[in-house]
Amino acid sequence: MKKLILLLCLLPLSAAASGPISWTEIFPGVWKGVAGEPEAYDLLRAAECEPFASALEGLERTPFPFAQTEVRAEVVDGKTYLRFPLRREEQVYGPGLNFQTVHQRGKILGLHVDHYGGRDNGRTHAPVPFYVSSAGYGVLVNSARYMTFYVGTAVRRDARDAPEARDRNTDPAWTSRPYSDAVEALVPANGVEFYVFSGGTPLGAVERYNLFCGGGTLPPRWGLGFTQRVEKLYDAAQVVAEAEEFERRGYPLDFIGLEPGWQSRAYPCTFEWDSGRFPDPAGLTRQLLHRGVRLNLWVNPYVSPDASIYDEILPHTGTHTVWCGIVPDLNDPEAVRIWTDRLRQGQVDIGVSGYKIDEVDGYDHYLWPDVARFPSGTSAEQMRQTYGVLAQKVTGRLYRQAGIRTFGLVRGSNAGAVSLPYVLYNDYYSHPDFITALVNSGFCGVLWTPEVRGSKTAEEWLRRFQSVVFSPMAMINAWSSGTKPWSFPEVAEQVKYYAELRMMLMPYFYSEFARYRFHGTPPFRSMALEPGFRSDPRTDTGSRDLEENPYLEAVTREIKDQYMAGGCLLVAPMFAGQESRTVLLPAGDWYDFYTGLYAGNGEEITVEPGLDRIPVFVRDGAVIPFIPPLLHAPGPGEKVDIEFRHYGRAGGSYLLYDDDGTTFAYEDGHYSWRTATVTRDARGELTGSLSPAEDGKPDTVGQVTFRFMTPAE
Ligand code: GAL
């Protein structure tokens, strides 16, 4: 008996395997690590994204960002424990779409797809398990499980760089959260694969991640116009009247979003037009298209017992319902076929331009519980983590099959969805937090719109509107408020000015999205990804140690209320009630977007723009393409005049992207990049020129003019 007890004591409590990590460099600066036995289903497999191999192969080889041996993995008790090193001077951005904070060092995040609940705790619409270090690398943990990330919070007994134990009684430097030298992740699986992206700079790391996931999405040109979502019970006549009113009042409009009432039943959905409100959907779509306006349809994927596809799809759905609707197993090819055929027939095939896929995020009380089962064998947990991505993928394919691009909305996403044509939104409505989400979206390969719904005052309305035009989707979502751009007459003209500005900037945003597609550069991004912002030249002591050099701006100073809209524009939104604000300008000369006047260089400035303006600044030498304020995006092949506006004193150039604006022909090389160059001649005069169109390549550029915004000294 004694022997048996002894033997039992010697046995480990649970099996632990600290096997080696197998590393492979799969592209220049991209390494894959494998620990234990990874599961067959993970985030990248769910997204089925193909790396943009030719772009990645063309990149410079960058060294592994730390000693590979510093990454540790152990499989204990059916879970994988991962550890990555963190140096004193590093800041961590991401993982996931956070709304209130940009700096994540010191956070414990339980990554879980969910509706945002007001706290940056890992439960969010896109809890992408990819973090970016200010030291110029990123790490992706490719698991579709609920994972916990300890981002520089926990201190190990064997820490390489352990904090000093201090006496709380006497030492004012004592802290309840001592410094930690690691990011640790707990993955509830017997193994996992992970990726290290070494970019040289944080932006370089993000670009590699985005290219690895296929490169960014390239919206159709019209996707970058203005969109209005109408009240949920609007009928066809009201929709047409709305489009007419936009035109009559001279407000741009590219697509109208129909909310749940286009369907005969919703929550759960039939995916069928309501024949009373919409007796002739094909006629309506045609009529609107004729006016240059497209339609986007709201859905959630939960199938109503009244839906014509109910019986057929039933065997291909999960065990649990959502609002009494059955849940298509989007990993079951039959479920996908039945659902997407339903969307194709009488919707995509009559010209509906895209979808808004709602309710694929949370809450726990709405969605299937973690005890649900799905016919494909995907666990409920993995389904929750990937359902939004699957919905984007299968609806995106409908358009790919039709040979035209779409640009829609979705409320849940995850890693791997970079090239899927969707923008995230939610029901939360804090304007400052919406901007912080926009800042963070660029760290995790997703797009985010700070949609405008309603407002208490004209001031708030205008402030929200001014920032949504500098975002991936310029949208009013009036599904419940019924608001229109002109709803606040006091500011209707200012709103119109910004709606028109959005249209004028279409070639700029289109080219910035092309950079997302071809180079992985996020079109909307944090200041922490900007060159010239990694340290403040006047106060940098040169040390890379945070304790010695607290002025490493991007590392120590959390900037969550200003961002870059493309490579040239620094946007600093104003919030209702604010009369002035500070703006941090990176190193280099910056100029006012509206006047071209000098604004500052590597410094914090205070601006008082008045209600009419959202502060926007432009880099020295920037050249920005503008078109006239059209009411709708130009059609395929339509030539439009371009005015290139140059800012500052330095010469400069802009790479203008062009293609047919709607199809996938660009994937076969049917696109062009043309260079607009501004130089200063011997007499000090600025002159501009645009490189000629290439033979046989798309060319939609009409008359070209140059305007020099900064007054001569
Ligand atoms: C919500 C969604 C809103 C609106 C509404 C319609 O779930 O977030 O934007 O579409 O449904 O019922």
Architecture overview:
The protein is of the alpha+beta class and 713 residues long. Helix content is 20%, strand content 24%. It is built from 14 helices and 36 strands. The strands form eight sheets. Strands 1-4-5-12-11-7-8 form a seven-stranded mixed β-sheet. A hairpin with a 5-residue loop joins strand 27 and strand 28. It binds beta-D-galactopyranose. The site of beta-D-galactopyranose has 9 residues, from loops.
Keywords:
single chain, alpha+beta, seven-stranded mixed beta sheet, seven-stranded parallel beta sheet, disordered N terminus
Topology:
Elements: H1 2-10, E1 16-17, E2 22-27, E3 30-36, H2 43-47, H3 53-57, E4 72-76, E5 79-85, E6 92-93, E7 107-113, E8 123-124, E9 130-133, E10 137-141, E11 147-151, E12 182-187, E13 191-198, H4 202-212, E14 226-229, H5 236-249, E15 255-258, H6 281-290, E16 294-299, H7 310-313, E17 317-322, E18 325-328, H8 333-344, E19 354-357, H9 380-402, E20 408-410, E21 422-424, H10 431-441, H11 458-468, E22 474-477, H12 492-504, H13 506-519, E23 524-525, H14 553-556, E24 563-565, E25 569-571, E26 581-584, E27 589-592, E28 598-601, E29 604-607, E30 616-619, E31 623-626, E32 640-646, E33 652-658, E34 672-680, E35 686-690, E36 701-708
Parallel strand pairs: 7-8, 14-15, 14-22, 15-16, 16-19, 19-20, 20-21, 32-36
Antiparallel strand pairs: 1-4, 2-3, 3-13, 4-5, 5-12, 6-9, 7-11, 9-10, 10-13, 11-12, 17-18, 23-24, 24-25, 25-30, 26-29, 27-28, 27-30, 31-32, 33-34, 34-35
Helix pairs in contact: 4-13
The chain binds beta-D-galactopyranose (GAL).
Beta-D-galactopyranose binds at residues 232, 259-260, 298, 358-359, 427, 477, 479.
